[in-house]
Amino acid sequence: MSVDATPPLLELRAVERTYVMGDNIVRALRGVDLIINKGESVALMGTSGSGKSTLMNILGCLDQPTKGTYLINGRPANGLSRSELADVRGKMIGFVFQSFNLLSRTSALENVEMPLMYQGVSTRERRKRAMAALQRVGLTGREDHHPSQLSGGQQQRVAIARALITNAPVIMADEPTGNLDSKTSHDVMGILQGLVAEGKTVVLVTHEADIAAYAARVVTLRDGQIIDDHTQVPVPTEAA
Amino acid sequence: MNILTTLWLALRALWRNKVRSMLTMLGIIIGIGAVIAMVAAGQGAQESVKQVFAGLGTNVLMVSNGSAPNFGPSGGAGSKLSLTWDDLAALSTEVSSIKYVAPALQTRTQLASEDNNWNSQVIGTTGTWFKIRNWKAAQGVVLDEDTGSSAAKVVVIGKTVATQLFGQASPIGQNVRINGQPFEVVGVLESKGQGPMGDYDDTLIIPVKTYQQKLEKGLAKYIKGQFLITMADGATAEKTMAAVTSLLRDRHKLGISDEDDFRIRNPAEFAKAQQDSTDRISTLLALVAAASLFVGGIGVMNIMLVSVIERTREIGIRMAVGAKPGNIMTQFLVESLVLSALGGLLGLGLGALFAKWMASYFGWPLFFPVKTAAIAVGVAGGVGVVFGLYPAIRASQLDPITALRYES
Ligand SMILES: Nc1ncnc2c1ncn2[C@@H]1O[C@H](COP(=O)(O)OP(=O)(O)OP(=O)(O)O)[C@@H](O)[C@H]1O
Ligand SMILES: [Mg+2]
What we know:
heterodimer; A: alpha/beta; six-stranded mixed β-sheet; four-stranded antiparallel β-sheet; 7 helices; B: alpha+beta; 13 helices; elongated; binds adenosine-5'-triphosphate; binds magnesium ion
């Protein structure tokens, strides 16, 4: 047991995740130990099916380990009810997905302010913070645009603004650049790197080495196990 | 989450599928419409029955000449005259279940005061008639046993007649010319208002003897009118009618195979028949209401299930950003509640229109049952909640990861 005064932000101990599909048992994670501290930027890499998304879903409290322990700020997150998990997600974690996952036929502004509705924030306050978040990702003037009226890069920025609005300390991004061209990908990574500079913790899943290069730490998975975990000097952001 | 925000989300979601929402509401609209129409009809009919009793008095039987099965205000239209003054006396003394009995002869005739003319219904009767009809004077007096049995040229007039002939002036002590003959007004009756057969207050009453002398050819053996009877407390209509029948058949010396030469009618039965027919309409409408509310509820459930599937990804997104299962459930529940309650409101309008049509068709007073309306909208909302519950629970039970991966 650790005797440190402050426990790590996120800590996995011997985490396993098993999917049972009829007779078929898929062991997506087989004993993962991982500590992520506040302010880190971590890229999860590995071949397809190695368990990156599964790991990220558990870290993001969208899923729960079949076995093992998950601690957030030293407090166990496994065994929480669905409602409690939702609460943790709302307060601690902002998600950015490969497929953006914005609400269609809903304006950028409303997409961004949506998480605050579940925290009982007043309409006026929501509006104000959503405007600020959109400005932060360089989308001022696009508040009323619907996702279908925005480019992929712009949609992903709306998604990042949505992840920012709750002031969650952790951003989880599962292949955030997977649907973007190279130029837009680097823009998006610049924004994420800016968040790390502000003290946020960013965990991202990627297949691409030049995207992983933005992170200060790279964790590589294979067959549900961590096979490599090293730190590096992140590439500097070009004109973010 | 804030209630207004939730409502706003629900309205927006419904507005996005306007036509679908409208079609879904149809069952609820018809159901609630039927409820409103039903209650309005029931109350209207009940009120009209009440008016009949208010006008005729309670526990009343009517005996008229002849056997023609007619039921109108102009009693005594029977083809063959058979009722006599002696019959009247015999009824009052020999039938124990009769509390009051009075003759009523009536005709429409021309009236005149100093300044005005009017045409109204004159009734010739005795003082007992006022007890039977339970009708008191608002001004002056009604006929009593003495004046009612005399040949005095006095008259008690209804409110409508008073207004038509004398305007705002007090009619007491003034003269009314009935068929050209001057009568002194001794009383004005309390207003009874509108009845199913017209204005109760458009009438005037004079002593029966005076009636026969001045409006008929003079005193006669037969009574060209009807008897009004109030049954004694606790007496049944059946027994009283049997007693009256046997007494009159006896007095009229009718043989075993002869038909009655008089006719006894029970207004309560008429009222009951009317009540029965509106009860039947009400039952029918209640069935329609229940069936369409049920079908409407199933429709709501069906559409909400479709909606949950269509919006699986939206649910996943909302859950990912912190929506609790309870939030998702509330969102869908409020949506089906709003859908049904809106249907209820539209149904209210439809029901009100239908009630209005029925009231004018059947000649009932128009009722808009406010309390029922409130309950009906509540019921509609309740249908929304009950039938929306299952879809809402399904939505809230979705796994966020599966929901996020869902391809529509
Ligand atoms: N819901 C599920 N049911 C059954 N098996 C699953 C489920 N989700 C993931 N798996 C399996 O778990 C393993 C890890 O999947 P995961 O999605 O974590 O891989 P990944 O590393 O994210 O791959 P990719 O790079 O293709 O996204 C795979 O073998 C996958 O088939
Ligand atoms: Mg993946």
